Automatic annotation (TrEMBL):
It comes from the Bacteria. It comes from Micromonospora coriariae. SMART domains: ANTAR (SM01012), GAF (SM00065). This is GAF domain-containing protein. Gene3D superfamilies: 3.30.450.40, Winged helix-like DNA-binding domain superfamily/Winged helix DNA-binding domain. Keywords: Kinase, Transcription, Transcription regulation, Transferase. PROSITE patterns: ANTAR. GO terms for molecular function: kinase activity; RNA binding. Residues 178-239 form the ANTAR domain.
C-alpha cells in the first residue's frame, strides 16, 4: 500500500527512515569538517570541498568552486573535472550566467534544463553543447562585489531536486566555514612570511652598518620610496643578493 511503513524497509517507518537519513547526513558533514581542517593549503581545501560535494549532494556529477570579482571576473579555484573550468570560462566569455548575476541575489540558483532555460541564453546554449544539461549553484560568501560560489553540474536534465537543494545548502554552509578558515590561515602565513623576510633584511643592514632595528627599517622604507618599489620586494632582493639597490630590482 502506498505510503505504508513498509516503504521505508523492514522494521522502519517513513519517519524513521527520514531521521536516519538526516543523521547520516549530519555525520558525513561532521566528518567533512574534520577532514577539511587538516588540509595544508587553501587550494587543497577547495579541491577537497569540490570532491566531497559530488559524493554528498544528490544528482551532482561534477563540482567546482569559483571566486567572482567585481561581478564580472570569474576565477575558478577548484574543480573535479576539466569540464568545470571550461563552463566557468563560458560564463566569463559570454559575460552572463548564474555566478555573474543571480547568485549575488539568491543563496541558491537552479538551472533544471539548459536546453529550455530562458535566462542567460548564450551561456546555457554553450553549456548544453559541452554536455552540461543541469546546474545547481550555491552562494558561499559575498564581500562587497566579490563572490564565492559552489557550482554543481550534471549531464542529465532535471538531475537536481528539492533534496539536492536542501543537502546542498547544508553542505555549502560547512564549505563556507572551511573556505573562510583556510583563507584566514593563508593570510596569516603570508603575513608571517613577509615579516620574516623584512626581519632578515633588517638584520643584514643592522650587521653591515651597525644600525638599530628602527634605523634599519627606516633605510628600507626610504629605499622603497625612492625606487617606487614595494618594501617586501626590496627586502626579498636584499636577502637574495645582499644588495640594497637605488633602482627598482628586477
Amino acid at each position: 500500500m502506498a505510503g505504508s511503513d513498509n516503504d521505508a524497509g523492514p522494521g522502519r517507518s517513513v519517519t524513521d527512515a527520514g531521521a536516519a537519513d538526516f543523521d547520516d547526513l549530519a555525520a558525513r558533514l561532521s566528518d567533512l569538517a574534520r577532514t577539511l581542517q587538516h588540509e595544508d593549503s587553501v587550494d587543497a581545501t577547495l579541491q577537497a570541498i569540490a570532491e566531497a560535494a559530488v559524493d554528498t549532494v544528490p544528482g551532482a556529477q561534477y563540482a567546482g568552486l569559483s571566486v567572482v570579482e567585481h561581478r564580472r571576473e570569474i576565477h575558478p579555484r577548484a574543480g573535479t573535472a576539466d569540464l568545470v573550468f571550461a563552463v566557468d570560462r563560458v560564463q566569463y566569455d559570454t559575460g552572463e550566467g548564474p555566478c555573474l548575476s543571480a547568485v549575488y541575489e539568491h543563496q541558491t540558483v537552479h538551472l533544471p534544463d539548459m536546453t529550455s532555460e530562458q535566462r542567460w541564453p548564450n551561456f546555457t546554449h554553450r553549456a548544453a553543447e559541452m554536455g552540461v544539461l543541469s546546474m545547481l549553484s550555491f552562494q558561499l560568501y559575498v564581500q562587497q562585489d566579490n563572490l564565492g560560489a559552489l557550482n554543481l553540474y550534471s549531464s542529465q536534465r532535471h538531475a537536481f531536486d528539492d533534496d539536492s537543494a536542501h543537502v546542498g545548502l547544508l553542505f555549502a554552509a560547512h564549505a563556507a566555514v572551511a573556505m573562510s578558515g583556510a583563507q584566514q590561515l593563508e593570510q596569516l602565513n603570508r603575513a608571517n612570511s613577509v615579516r620574516d623576510v623584512i626581519g632578515q633584511a633588517k638584520g643584514i643592514l643592522m650587521e653591515r652598518h651597525k644600525l638599530t632595528a628602527d634605523q634599519a627599517f627606516t633605510v628600507l622604507a626610504r629605499a622603497s620610496q625612492n625606487t617606487n618599489t614595494r618594501l617586501i620586494d626590496l627586502a626579498r632582493h636584499l636577502t637574495a643578493t645582499g644588495e640594497l639597490t637605488d633602482r627598482p630590482p628586477r
